[in-house]
């Protein structure tokens, strides 16, 4: 037989087998668009704006539907009711971690974001408790944020009211708070180590949100055998990890078991008290931990200090920017009957946080920035169950408290010291993200900080 004919027949059989495997479990999963062999529904999803693509598909298939990312079925939850039913009503079952191959190459099954079971519990409990109690008898985390807010203002004064893109400086401030907690000292904004850190971090955020990374996550073979921006991502993380490990070694040489100076010291003291298995969990997870948390009294203080109208503004900022449009992939921990569908154990779950934060029933004209979304008819602040910028319940972001405190203190400090002037009419500002993948990456802009 002609070799060409044999090749064509073989490829056809492979494609048909792939299609059969994709569709064989269709009766158990929610409906969705017909996938192509091998590619699945990749061509129906815009890698630059995944959230919008999922919204369009939900109009045809409802709030719970299935898409194939490559040959892997993924159940999508779109809208508040579906997300609440899964993450809150069935939170334990939907608390597993889905496939994220690019990040898995870095974490190797450790860390906080993409682990489950005992490893996740050990690392999260240690991190949250250490950081929550870190200010007791020492400088509180709030003190560190306030200090950084003052330093940020001084840097903005150096712009001398001239137009500037403040993105880098505004990113330095929260990063420096984390560095202060982990390394004991903040960095000067011109410090070479700090600039190195920030450069790596900013580059990685853009790479992680790029279309290429979405493709790599769906076809992991590309990660190991093909060139691309993922190689730069992995190298950046390895470089930062090496720097942190060197700092850990320095701390070991000057460690005082009775007087921890920072997070690294607390980490080393904990290692001396736990068994070998937990030491391994902590040791290999720590360099990847760049999170913080603090007590729940933050919300009470915000109410007392800034009033409810300003609190509505802070909530609306978080809702409007939709920083994390698609939650990190989850997986069901066991077979579950969900809305008359049977979702098998291990199935990847995607929850659209955009669909919750931009729900038009809860937030009229959701594409418009309007603090009134969080005010009742009498002008009082009103809570909303739809407010999920940090996800919810079991896998809620451990840094939620710190993020809210930073947003409050940085924003109010800036507004107390500067008039902000846009170079274009505010109504003509385009806030459409450059990428809308893992993170919403904002477009470049310029603004003038005019001292009051």
Automatic annotation (TrEMBL):
Cofactors demanded by this protein: heme
Chief location category: endoplasmic reticulum
GO terms in the biological process aspect are:
organic acid metabolic process; xenobiotic metabolic process
Q: Which CDD domains match?
A: CYP2C-like (cd20665)
Where do the annotations place heme binding? Answer: 397
Signal peptide per UniProt: 1-27
- Under Enzyme Commission nomenclature, its number is 1.14.14.1
Which residue ranges traverse the bilayer?
none
Q: Which family does it belong to?
A: Belongs to the cytochrome P450 family.
What is the name attached to this protein's record? unspecific monooxygenase
Q: Which organism is it from?
A: Marmota marmota marmota (Alpine marmot)
């Amino acid at each position: 037989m002609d070799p060409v004919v044999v090749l064509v027949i073989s490829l056809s059989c492979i494609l048909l087998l792939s299609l059969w495997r994709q569709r064989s479990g269709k009766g158990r999963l929610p409906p969705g668009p017909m996938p192509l062999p091998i590619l699945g529904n990749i061509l129906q999803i815009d890698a630059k704006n995944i959230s919008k693509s999922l919204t369009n598909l939900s109009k045809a298939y409802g709030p719970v539907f299935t898409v194939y990312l490559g040959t892997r079925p993924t159940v999508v939850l779109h809208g508040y009711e579906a997300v609440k039913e899964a993450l809150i009503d069935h939170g334990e079952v939907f608390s597993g971690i889905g496939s994220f191959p690019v990040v898995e190459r870095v974490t190797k099954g450790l860390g906080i974001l993409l682990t489950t079971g005992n490893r996740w519990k050990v690392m999260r409990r240690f991190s949250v408790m250490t950081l929550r109690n870190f200010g007791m008898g020492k400088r509180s985390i709030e003190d560190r944020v306030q200090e950084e807010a003052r330093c940020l203002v001084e840097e903005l004064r150096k712009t001398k009211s001239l137009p500037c893109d403040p993105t880098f400086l505004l990113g330095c401030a929260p990063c420096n708070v984390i560095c202060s907690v982990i390394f004991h000292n903040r960095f000067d904004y011109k410090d070479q180590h700090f600039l190195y850190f920030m450069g790596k971090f900013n580059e990685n955020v853009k790479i992680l949100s790029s279309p290429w990374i979405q493709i790599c996550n769906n076809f992991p073979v590309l990660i190991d055998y093909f060139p691309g921006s993922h190689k730069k991502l992995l190298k950046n993380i390895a470089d930062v990890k090496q720097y942190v490990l060197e700092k850990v070694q320095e701390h070991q040489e000057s460690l005082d078991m009775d007087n921890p100076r920072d997070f690294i010291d607390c980490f080393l003291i904990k290692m001396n008290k736990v068994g070998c298995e937990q030491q391994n969990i902590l040791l290999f997870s720590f360099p990847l931990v760049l999170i913080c948390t603090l007590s729940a009294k933050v919300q009470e203080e915000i109410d007392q200090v800034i009033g409810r109208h300003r609190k509505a503004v802070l909530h609306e900022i978080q809702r409007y920017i939709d920083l994390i449009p698609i939650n990190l992939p989850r997986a069901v921990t066991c077979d579950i009957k969900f809305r008359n569908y049977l979702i098998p154990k291990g199935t990847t779950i995607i929850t659209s946080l955009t669909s919750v934060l931009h729900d038009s029933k809860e937030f009229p004209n959701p594409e418009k920035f309007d603090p009134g979304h969080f005010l009742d008819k009498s002008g009082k602040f009103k809570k909303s169950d739809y407010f999920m910028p940090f996800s919810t319940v079991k896998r809620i972001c451990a840094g939620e408290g710190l993020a809210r405190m930073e947003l409050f203190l940085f924003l109010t400090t800036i507004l107390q010291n500067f008039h902000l002037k846009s170079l274009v009419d505010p109504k003509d500002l385009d806030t459409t993200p450059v990428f809308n993948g893992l993170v919403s990456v904002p477009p470049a802009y310029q603004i003038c900080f005019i001292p009051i």
